[in-house]
Design brief:
The structure holds two protein chains of two kinds. Chain A is α+β, with helices and mostly antiparallel strands. Chain A has five helices and seven strands; from the N terminus they run H-H-H-H-E-E-E-E-H-E-E-E. In chain A, helix 1 packs antiparallel against helix 3. Chain B is globular, with a radius of gyration of 20 Å. Chain B is built from two helices and 19 strands. Classes of the chains: A alpha+beta, B mainly beta. Strand 1 of chain A pairs antiparallel with strand 19 of chain B.
Chain lengths: 194, 282
Amino acid sequence: RGDLNALRSAMGVMQHHDAITGTEKQLVAFDYARILSQGMAECEIVVDAALRKIIAPKTADTEDQPKLDDEFKTVTCPLLNVSQCATTEENKSFVVTVYNPLSKPVTHYVRLPVIDNANYTVLCPMGKKQVTQLVPISDAVKRIPGRASKAEFELVFRAKNLPPLGFRSYYVSQDAKLDGEEHDYTGGQVRREP
Amino acid sequence: AENIVLGDHMSLSLTLNENGELSSATFGEKTIKLSQGIYYYSGAAGNNEEFKNRSSGAYIFRPTPAQPILLSAKGEVKQYKGPIVEEVQVIYSNWVSQTIRRYTDEEYVEVNWIVGPIPIDDNVGKEIIIRYESDIKSNGVFYTDSNGRETLKRVRDFRPTWKLELAEKISGNYYPVTSRISIKDEKNQFSVLTDRAQGGSSLNDGQIELMVHRRLLHDDAFGVGEALNETAYGGVGLVAVGSHYLTAGGRPATDKFLAHRKLMDSWMFFTPTPTTTFQQWQ
């Protein structure tokens, strides 16, 4: 059970001009980062619980239907700005959920750090393949001190028309094969260029 | 040793010179001359006992009177093109680099900059700026937003309520930029949107500059009691990573919506699914 107030409280503290402008002592700056990070971590628990409730409210209780992997939590990746994310780098399949906090539909460009120059498939909830592109990560990013990542590429795709104040999830897999019936993809729409 | 062209001529195209710096941009039907450079100001250093000896520090930006020094004179350039994004990655030195991106369906240019760790071996504090220069005849006027709300008109070397005599022409014309800074003339408008609050100005007509990182070696005696000399992993100087979004010629509403999109950006959450197939998840 996460504590939403941890982030609320952190955001309250961060209204101080020292946090806004960077006029605090360095030890205070580190402490601000600690408080904010703890608040984010608490909210991650809440998001994980909420998404499980929305995505799989019934399936978890019935034996004949599969459920989401219980042992795997939904997490954020705060180091995406340096192209580092353990979930996207270490897993061959994962779900990316993109939340739109605006009251209008928006398109978001998802950039996911991945290790291999491999074939990735990104499926929307309707099973439609998304156009993807692999872009090599700049050497300047790779040598940022403290970055601990083996990612060499970013997998880019468009999360198009995200619903206002809502989310959409995408299933990403390396060399994914669909069970059962083949989906009818529009030939020209699926392209991938390194 | 050739110019690089990103985009198409229908919506947005960019020309970059052989160093990976922007040289012109066409936004829809509007073409503006656009160049860009990364510079640093040397921070003033003194004993703080008199006004003239005040150091640049956490509270104040006080560059030495000398012109800023260019950091982006020569870059190592790599270009990638694909169906979603075209990008040019430029490394100027082991502490200054940028990636210029143009997404196929978008009307803005993304400049993703990486600055740091700022070297201080020469014992000089440095304040790094990115400067965009256009052919817009802005006539001393520029616009900055006020905490992401109202956009305020700023006039160079001028205050609306008193007669101004500026002793420090650079910092005296700097304003907070929370989400965007713009210049315009009768034909064109050019805006730079930021992903965080920065200091910015238009020190000459057609110019916009924004400060992206600073590392200073002296306290400014305004209360913090230490120099703004941040270190991070392994004791090296901090590296700052961020983005500028450039728009021009567009409707003002486009800028505002883009500012909303970037300041309240979408959040991403990740769930590993090692045993859940797509059909099960669906």
